[in-house]
Amino acid sequence: MSAMPSSVEQTQRKRAQLAVTIAGACYLGIALSHFIVPWLFQWHTTLPASAIAVVAGAPIDNISFLYLFNADLLLYELMLSGLSFYAARQLRDGKRTGLVLAGCLAVFFLLRTPIEFVYFPFTWPNIAQSVGSFALACAYGTALLWRSAFQVP
Question: What is the DSSP string of the chain?
Answer without folding.
Answer: -PPPPPHHHHHHHHHHHHHHHHHHHHHHHHHHGGGTHHHHTTHHHHS-TT-EEEETTEEEEHHHHHHHHHHHHHHHHHHHHHHHHHHHHHHHTTBHHHHHHHHHHHHHHHHHHHHHHHHS-S-HHHHHHHHHHHHHHHHHHHHHHTGGG--B-
